[in-house]
Design brief:
156 residues; alpha+beta; 7-stranded mixed β-sheet; two-stranded antiparallel sheet; 31% helix; globular
Length: 156
């Protein structure tokens, strides 16, 4: 499991837009803290609540110099629709291949819902390539302490 003090595992994926822009974590490192908010699936109630909560705090994260990304195994098309429907302005990263999910040791199955290889809910704050904050849900329906995440960003 990736923890505070570890080097942040690098990964590439696709930004959840109709343009399928490439995402490379290494290109985001070095311009201030990076917040990676892994979530199980777009359009589910807990994930919707979490992404809206981050959107409501997006200005505070930006003022602290952070870049915020949501990450799930959803397709870029699904993420694009999710962003549009809920007014999410920060980028969502589509990790359909599961590379980031496995690199951060977050892969879970929710068999009763037919979901396999999705991300557990987790948040990592990365500064200069090092994980400076980590939170992983005991239950994927739990949400992070948003103020603790913001405090970690402001302390980075």
């Amino acid at each position: 499991m990736v923890s505070t003090g570890d080097d942040a595992p690098a990964f590439t994926a696709t930004v959840g837009t109709s343009d399928h822009e490439p995402f490379d974590l290494d290109e985001e490192i070095g311009d201030g803290p990076v917040v990676l908010a892994f979530f199980p699936g777009a359009f589910t109630p807990p994930c919707t609540n979490e992404m809206i909560a981050f959107q409501e705090r997006a200005d505070a994260f930006a003022e602290a110099g952070a870049t915020l990304f949501g990450i799930s195994a959803d397709s870029p098309f699904s993420q694009g629709g999710f962003r549009e429907e809920h007014g999410i302005e920060f980028d969502l990263v589509s990790d359909m291949a599961g590379d980031a999910i496995r690199a951060y040791d977050l892969e879970i199955d929710i068999a009763e819902l037919g979901l396999h290889g999705i991300a557990n809910r987790a948040v990592f704050v990365i500064d200069d390539g090092e994980v400076v904050f980590d939170w992983v849900a005991d239950d994927p329906t739990n949400e992070p302490d948003y103020e603790a995440v913001l405090d970690a960003v402001e302390s980075a």
